[in-house]
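Q: Here's a chain of 206 amino acids. Please give me its 3D structure as tokens.
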Amino acid sequence: MRFRLTPRETSFYDMFAASADNIVTGSRLLMELLGADASAKAEIAERMRAAEHAGDDATHAIFHQLNSSFITPFDREDIYSLASSLDDIMDFMEEAVDLVVLYQVDELPKGVEQQIEVLSRAADLTAEAMPNLRTMDNLTEYWIEVNRLENQADQIHRKLLAQLFNGKYDAMEVLKLKQIVDVLEEAADAFEHVANTVETIAVKES
């Protein structure tokens, strides 16, 4: 039986949980973005930037712990992959908000709220799942549901692209809005990467 509980090991679980909780903060800021006026959007972008920096700090802390640990709770490459994928989610969410402000987008196309709702649900599920890495219990439903949400996000993304290219928007507006919805889709993909990594870890540890 593998010896699992050492003081050095347990800190990884806390750091993964903190990183996921920070992603929930980011998803809430995305929700706030919907319907916000220009000044509110700028303020939300500042808060999102701070959250993204906190996410970077959490990721660097995991990498530092990984590099200084002799014993790890599971494979080093899986720890690296999980931390990197969590960081990617935060990066994509921050990029989407920043683009909305930089491009001075007054109104996001109908359907973006559905993208953000999917991301918010995935963020909640991810934050709920991270503490379960300690025992590897109750994780199957998590990765199944996140994969289902990513499929839903794909469908929403395709509909948004069809809407953007239906002739309603001028060419410059299409370029701006497409970049935003594409980045939100990348965030959904990153949630799936996290779920897939968790599944890989659980299979190895079973």
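Q: Can you summarize the key feature?
A: The radius of gyration is 18 Å.
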